[in-house]
Specification:
The protein is an alpha+beta fold. Helices cover about 30% and strands about 30% of the residues. A 4-stranded mixed β-sheet has the order 1-2-4-3, covered by helices on one side. About 25% of the residues are buried.
Length: about 80
């Protein structure tokens, strides 16, 4: 995995989920994480306001890790790490 300019690891996969409504962001995140090796990271960009609740809940329930969450790019940005 490469490093970004700020020293943080870059995600293995970027998903643009803007415009998708619940439950699609969670379903796409689940599918992306399943395709990654343990420890792999996916970055999600969502515009659905419910993603602020749904994505963290999905991560807690599935055992994955929410490494980062912020409001940016006109929506919400999440970085998830697949469970080991």
């Amino acid at each position: 995995m490469s490093k970004r300019g700020d020293g943080a690891p870059s995600p293995d996969l970027d998903l643009d989920l803007r415009g998708l409504k619940c439950p699609l962001p969670v379903l796409r995140a689940r599918k992306a994480l399943a395709a990654l090796p343990p420890g792999g990271r996916v970055r999600l960009v969502c515009t659905d306001p419910m993603a602020a609740i749904d994505i963290p809940h999905f991560v807690r329930e599935s055992g994955h890790v929410l490494e980062h969450q912020e409001r940016a790019e006109g929506g919400l940005v999440f970085v998830l790490r697949r469970a080991e």
